[in-house]
Amino acid sequence: MGRLEQQVALVTGAGAGIGLAIARCFAAEGAFVHVADIDGAAAERAAEAISRAGGNAVGVSADVSRGQDVTAMFRAAEKSHGRIDVLVNNAGLNVRSDFRHLTDDDWERIREVNLDGAMRVARDGFGLLRASGKGSLINLSSIMASRGLRQLAAYSVTKGAVSALTRTLAVEYAPFGIRVNALAPGFIETALTERVLRNPAINRALLDRTPLRRFGTPDDVARAALFFASDDSAFVTGAELAVDGGMSAGL
Ligand code: NAP
Hints:
By secondary structure, this protein is an alpha/beta fold. It has helices at about 15-30, 40-50, 65-80, 105-125, 125-130, 155-175, 195-200, 200-210, 220-230; strands at about 10, 30-35, 55-60, 85-90, 135-140, 180-185, 240-245. The chain has one domain (about 10-240): NAD(P)-binding Rossmann-like Domain (Rossmann fold, 3-Layer(aba) Sandwich). A seven-stranded parallel beta sheet has the order 3-2-1-4-5-6-7, with helices on both faces. Helix 1 packs across helix 9 (about 220-230) and helix 3 runs parallel beside helix 4. The longest helix has 21 residues, at about 105-125. The protein is globular and about 50 Å long. The structure holds NADP nicotinamide-adenine-dinucleotide phosphate. NADP nicotinamide-adenine-dinucleotide phosphate (NAP) binds near residues 13 and 90.
């Protein structure tokens, strides 16, 4: 028996990286998974791979920064099961830039996806989570929500806001049986961090600050997401779990 048997999950940005690992993990634990991504073909491929591995999934093309896409995504989920038990607000991006050179366009795009998108998914997904009777909303924040690292101002601001949104919604959604928690990954090996981790000096400096002496994998984050998704965390809401090899515990 999987830990998410009979459950329905929806994961945004699940065509690659952490979202894909979460979708795979949830499906392996028995959930039906709506695999959403801005790249519809990647979402389809991910859903097909999950089905080939014996799971149940469907791909859906959805850019979380577009209201009409999010509406269509939830309409399709409503048609198929009438509820969502686990909703993962994972889609996110980053553009590294010294703050003094940050363009309005980059600031807006990061905000539109990481913050406005997360807000829209959390707001518009409410009805389907309530229909679950015991919904779990999981937001992808970051350890950068509460620390400073150069060239990450816009990203960190949006993740700080996602953490604040998590605490507020935990209180506001609790009467409807919906738990809201956040994951705060450290440095995880995905396309998002590829460039920075390829720089030998930065790579070494980051590893030196990571007590467990390695970078995380998408599966490390997926297993933490499974905790928030399952009944193992039935009395946990408004929490933020660092998945960072101990980085944020240090100086
Ligand atoms: P990733 O490898 O770049 O994957 C992100 C996925 O989201 C991609 O498939 C991407 O599609 C998709 N996406 C981008 N914009 C979207 C949009 N507007 N609507 C829907 N989907 C969209 O990134 P990741 O590392 O897995 O990050 C996933 C989440 O974890 C993000 O919220 C990120 O901020 C957070 N996080 C990551 C790390 C880390 O170290 N990797 C650390 C802390 C937090 P395209 O590839 O086609 O753009």
